[in-house]
Model the fold of this input.
Amino acid sequence: MKTTKFGSKIIEAAEEILQLEYRAGDRNYYGEKLEQVVQEFDLLQSVKSKVFKGRGKAQPDYCAITISVILDRAMRKYNGSDNTLRNVSAKYFIDESSRRELRIDNRPQPGCIFATQRSGGTGWHVSIVWNVEGNSIKTIEGNTYSSSSFHVKKDGCKIKLGATEYGILSRMRPKDKVDWFIHIEELFGKDTANYQESEAFLADSVTQCSNLDYDENAVGGEPDENENPVVEVIKGAEMLGIPAKYVYIGGGVAGFFLVCYLIRKLKE
Done:
């Protein structure tokens, strides 16, 4: 496959971040893998205010943070420079790329950024285009979920996400459902280079794994405060000073008594 020389470094960096194997929906929502990404973002922050919320605490919306860290790594790989195109806001990448006169259109290329409105129009979501296959794009995204999403382990095996899980993972999307493609891969010119998707992440040739089919039209999105009731309960508990682990313990106990009640009613 081909992209620009800088685009190949973006792909390489995105695969590194995917290899963190971050998934959430349980207490890993507070886990060290996401904390690692957010702290890496903070390393290049020019302001005193840091984004990292602290060990074991819920971290902020991280789709734009994930993109920023990928670009940080890609620029260091490409020419050793610091990345100045970075922010916690997805909308920033649209506005700043336009200001810098980067090409923005509806024609995806590997290594570019895609920007699309969240489900319900509550803001924007961004990610890296990993590859283009006909009318579909394959992506590497932070803070996303779908029944077509998968988490890729270091041994190359794909694991489908649970109904309430999301994370840093790969997806397949119809390209005509995406609003904009931002050609960050052309930041340093349009000279092309070949790149090879890592089989370790795609698992296409790993026979011991059960490979999952993509469903690009699967229901999914980018979670916000209205889309994940589990997270909302945890956030409320945090505000009351209740650790997340007790929320899960309480939920398990409540579930146990509910099952007992139903069994009793069935016997009546």
